[in-house]
Amino acid sequence: MKIVVCIKQVPDIHASADSEFDREAYHLLNNPNDLNALEEALRLKEQYGGHITCLSMGPRKCEEQLRELLGMGADEAVLLSSPQFAGSDTYATSCILAAGIQKLGSFGIVITGEQSVDGETGQVGPGIAELLGIPHIIGVEKINALHPQSVLIEKADEESRLVVKLPTPALLAVRKSCNTPRIPSIRGRIAAARAEITIWSAEDLPLNSANVGKSGSPTQVLHTVNCEKNHQRVNSTKFFDECNPSEFMEVVSHVLQL
């Protein structure tokens, strides 16, 4: 079975903020939760066999981060990189990644992290599934079994633990708590350094150009700020029995100034 793992490269959290994230300007890292997705794929391959393709979208310099994934054990890495993709929001990103998966051909499951550490929207995985017309489930904590026609997973909500059987192909968004990603071996790193990264541009994909990039994004980031960390704790909880906007704003303003 072919397993596709979607991987995002996120800016180093120690980088300073700007009006919008220019990924060419920052040092990039593989999104930590996406490494949980790859680890889950590797465990499935070890148990059931298969072929793992890591699919990512970003600037050409993301090749370096993709080699880390090959070093962990992925079979191939594909980077979707084109100037037309710059400024894509979660919808446009979902369109681009879905087009990349379609170009890869038939597959059994797509695995993603539940969310990235930068945007933290958790929207891209479900967006990809909707565009591909396949079932999906978020919050996956364990993949119990994988068969040619179905996959059995566990997830938990606030009150119960659920066991769910999905027909394949399907998309699974896994939680960070589902596993601990492995560290690439020295042999894996050496092989990854020599491996070829496949790069597809906008012209290589079955895309509607109106749905990609900044102009194709329904949402726009107007400004971002870098919030300074403040470790001073507020040791009391205040409850408001009645709606009192002025009192509420006074308390919130005080907390924000701490």
**Counted beta strands:** 11
Shape: globular
Question: Would you list the SSEs in sequence order as H and E?
Answer: EEEHEHEHEHEEEEHEH
- Helix and strand content put the structural class at alpha/beta
Strand content: 15-25%
Low-confidence stretches: none
Q: Whole-number average pLDDT?
A: 87
Q: Can you list the strand order of the major beta sheet? A: 9-8-7-10-6-1-4-5-11
- Rg from C-alpha positions? 20 Å
Q: Please describe the biggest sheet, giving its number of strands, its sense, and whether it closes into a barrel.
A: 9 strands, mixed
User: DSSP helix count?
Assistant: 6
Percent helix: 25-40%
Distance between the termini: 53 Å
Describe the structure.
Helices cover 28% and strands 24% of the residues. It contains six helices and eleven strands. The strands form two sheets. It has a nine-stranded mixed β-sheet. A two-stranded antiparallel sheet has the order 2-3. By secondary structure, the protein is α/β, with parallel strands linked by helices. The model has no long low-confidence stretch (mean pLDDT 87). It has helices spanning 32-48, 63-72, 90-104, 124-132, 186-194, 245-256; strands at residues 2-7, 9-11, 28-30, 51-57, 76-80, 109-113, 136-146, 150-156, 161-167, 170-174, 198-200.
Keywords:
about 260 residues, alpha/beta
What order do the helices and strands come in, and which of them pair?
Layout: E1 2-7, E2 9-11, E3 28-30, H1 32-48, E4 51-57, H2 63-72, E5 76-80, H3 90-104, E6 109-113, H4 124-132, E7 136-146, E8 150-156, E9 161-167, E10 170-174, H5 186-194, E11 198-200, H6 245-256
Parallel strand pairs: 1-4, 1-6, 4-5, 5-11, 6-10, 7-10
Antiparallel strand pairs: 2-3, 7-8, 8-9
Helix pairs in contact: 2-5, 3-4
